[in-house]
Design brief:
alpha/beta; Urease, subunit C, domain 1; TIM Barrel; 2 domains; 13 helices; 17 strands
């Protein structure tokens, strides 16, 4: 770089913007009034001392009632799924262009809802990565992607194209995901509800296979997420060392029942539980297998919350009509309704989730050097977490997202 270019660069960098509000939640604590200084898409500084903004800054003051918080992180979405009653058919049979359009719309919807980071735990043809490549970062959430979930032949969500069995094929599957640019490996450790012929109570892989997948993922610097409903499979994925456990419902033949010994291990080992929460009111009910067990599953979730386990919020957005891509605020309201203190709900959706998806320090915090993904609310989410639905503005990498 020549001296002239360097000085031009310095001049450009000196133009920064400041967001001010009466209250700031920084991802950990409510900190009172302050300002966030943004430069080149990153947070340069966060001030709570009442300092005067630098002269060359563009200042936006949202006023004393407004709150600034980190952009939210949904730890479990499916961008390629259109949240229709036929979501499986759409993602399976429609041409890639149509599915990519679904993902593009889903990404914009999530971003306008204040979700500035999503972890996509199941696409087809690596379309979440295609989307990430095609759409500039400021026009979509940060996308942490798994590609097609690894599953058994004919197993849960096999129609997404991730079938692999046997050590060699499993290692190849993990390596393919690394080469494609995935950040996380998603494994269907047990069966699921929306795949004909799959039983959520059954294990899909043995303990040795699960351990192999996790070790290879970690060796290649990917995180590992396990889909699991029943207790035996939950035990296996704890043994295998998965970073996040999805669903964690403790589903049984006709109900759901927590196993305290397994929950204790999750708490002690500080494994992230990705609780599946959030349903938009007035939409068709969940699948019969879930609807029949919903009270028992809510009881399990309540006990998991009370246990002190590290919880992140995964909506499973896209899979059915009650989970459209703007469902996230409903998940936060639901967790608060199950007894989680509002500050913990907000941490689950910011700092904790960022760590769970492998982006600690970059996402989920308002601190120097973090990405300038900022949510502006009209009222206090600590007093009432449903305030996250009253969005004044969303900033993604320092750019204000149109539409709020
Ligand atoms: Zn899912």
């Amino acid at each position: 770089m020549t001296r002239r270019e360097l000085s031009k660069d310095t001049v450009m960098q000196s133009a920064f913007q400041v967001l001010k509000a009466g209250q700031i939640f920084d991802g950990v604590q409510a900190r009172g009034p302050g300002m966030v200084m943004i430069e080149n898409g990153l947070i340069r500084d966060v001030d709570f001392t009442g300092a005067v903004p630098p002269e060359n800054a563009t200042v936006t003051d949202f006023g004393p009632a407004a709150w600034l918080l980190p952009g939210l992180v949904d730890a479990h979405v499916h961008l390629c799924w259109d949240a229709s009653t036929d979501a499986v058919a759409h993602v399976t049979n429609d041409d890639p262009g149509a599915v990519l359009d679904t993902a593009r719309t889903a990404a914009v919807t999530a971003l306008r809802t204040g979700v500035t980071t999503v972890r996509d735990l199941g696409d087809r043809d690596y379309l979440a990565l295609t989307l990430r490549d095609q759409v500039p970062p400021t026009q979509r959430p940060e996308i942490v992607a798994a590609g097609p979930p690894i599953t058994t032949r004919g197993g849960h969500c096999h129609f997404l194209g991730g079938e692999a069995e046997g050590a060699e094929a499993l290692l190849a599957a993990v390596r393919e995901r690394t080469e494609r640019g995935c950040d996380v490996v998603k494994v269907m450790a047990g069966g699921g509800n929306m795949t004909p012929g799959s039983n959520p109570l059954h294990q899909q892989y043995g303990p040795a296979d699960l351990r192999l997948i996790v070790e290879e993922a970690h060796r290649l610097r990917l995180t590992a997420a396990a889909h699991v409903h029943a207790a035996d499979a939950i035990g296996d994925v704890i043994d295998a060392g998965f970073d996040t456990i999805e669903h964690f419902t403790f589903m049984t033949l006709d109900s759901a029942g927590l196993r305290d010994d397994l929950l204790d291990r999750v708490v002690k080992q500080r494994i992230f539980v990705s609780l599946t929460a959030g349903m938009v009111p007035g939409t068709p009910p969940p699948p019969p297998a879930i609807a029949a067990r919903i009270d028992a599953m809510i009881d399990v979730a309540t006990k998991v919350i009370a246990s002190g386990a590290r919880i992140v919020v995964g909506t499973d957005a896209g899979i059915e009509p009650s989970k459209p891509h703007h469902v996230f605020p409903y998940a936060l309201v639901q967790l608060a309704g199950l007894g989680m203190p509002t500050l913990d709900v907000l941490r689950s959706a910011t700092t904790e989730a960022a760590e769970a998806v492998g982006l600690a320090g970059r996402k989920g915090v308002l601190r120097p050097a973090a990405d300038a993904d900022v949510l502006v609310l009209d009222s206090s989410p600590v007093a009432d977490v449903s305030a996250v639905a009253d969005i004044r503005a969303v900033y993604r990498a320092g750019h204000r997202v149109p539409g709020n």
